Amino acid sequence: MQILIFILGACVGSFANVLAIRTTESRNYIFGRSKCPKCDRQIHWYDNLPLISFLLLKGRCRQCKESISIQYPVVELVMGILAVVFYVHNSSFLPYILLMGMGTMLLAIALTDLKEKFIYESHLYSLLAFSICYRYLFIDVGIMDTLLGVGLFGGFLLCLRFIGRIIYKREAMGVGDIKMGFILGILFDWQLAVVALYLSFISASIVGVYLLLFKKKQIKILPFAPFIAFGSILSVVYGNKIIYAFLSII
Ligand SMILES: [Zn+2]
Questions:
Q1: Are 133 and 228 part of one and the same domain?
Q2: Are residues 129 and 47 in the same domain?
Q3: Distance 64 CA to ligand 1 centre (A)
Q4: 51-108, pLDDT tens digit by residue?
Q5: Same structural domain for residues 163 and 219?
Q6: Are residues 124 and 248 in the same domain?
Q7: What is the distance in A from the centroid of ligand 1 to the CA of 111?
Q8: Ligand 1 centroid vs 36 CA: distance in angstroms?
Q9: What is the pLDDT of residues 165-184, one digit of tens each?
Q10: Alpha-carbon torsion 164, 170, 173, 174, what sign?
């Protein structure tokens, strides 16, 4: 069963790729056929199978032989794994669909932020809709707890923006990241919001230090949306276990 779920997830990942790329190019993402960005020729369906086609074609376009971006299989793989993780977390139909919807939008947001350092409103609205439905139907916390989660997650990122402006005289946190924080806060009470924020910043620091030490890259702006997405997904699925483990240590 989980292999089937993984394949399904990889297909959804393929859609997340299309969603991100075509939003940035303002193309119609439901209907248009896929084209090779290098030679502009249409891609046959059998060359467009998630993960498998990339491996069979050895990462090159069948027609022009130019290399295909590694982004495609990586995103398909990530969504395949997410699909299995969500399935283990909650295999009932409706919550699963909502989790997959959130995962897809988070991937698309992370991709556009990585590529263009920009987060599109249309993706945020979809994320908002999925989050509200999931919170309303499947998260059993009071409205005050939710408000605290929203205030803490979004408010913390907003404060960072002000602090960055005052101390460093630059934008430490983008408006899109802050909106994302307010939206994702819907899914958490304050404890889970702390977990999500903590995981976001820890993962960003690890990647930042890695880039600085091993890639010798001077990072002026590290796109933060991928880390918010990472921290939030982990907190939705494993947040309570993390808190429990933490409390049993201290
Ligand atoms: Zn081509």
A1: yes
A2: no
A3: 4
A4: 999 999 999 999 999 999 999 999 999 999 999 999 999 989 999 999 999 999 999 9
A5: yes
A6: yes
A7: 22
A8: 5
A9: 888 777 778 899 999 999 99
A10: positive
The DSSP code sequence of 114-174 is HHHS---HHHHHHHHHHHHHHHHHH----HHHHHHHHHHHHHHHHHHHHHHHHHTSS-SS-
pLDDT score recorded for residue 217:
65
Q: How far is the CA of 61 from the centre of ligand 1 (A)?
A: 5
pTM of the model: 0.92
Between 168 and 156, where is the model more confident?
Answer: 156
Calculate how far, in angstroms, residue 45's C-alpha sits from the geometric centre of ligand 1.
14
Does a structural domain hold residue 76?
yes
Tokens of 153: 């997650």
Domain assignment present for 107:
no
Q: Is residue 49 part of a domain?
A: yes
91, exposed or middle or buried, with CB in 10 Å at 0-12, 13-18, 19+?
exposed
Q: State how many domains the chain has.
A: 2
Structural domain span for residue 224: 118-250
For ligand 1, an ion, list residues with CB under 5 A: 36, 38-39, 61, 63-64
Q: What is the pLDDT of residue 36?
A: 87
The CA distance from 87 to 127, in Å, is 19
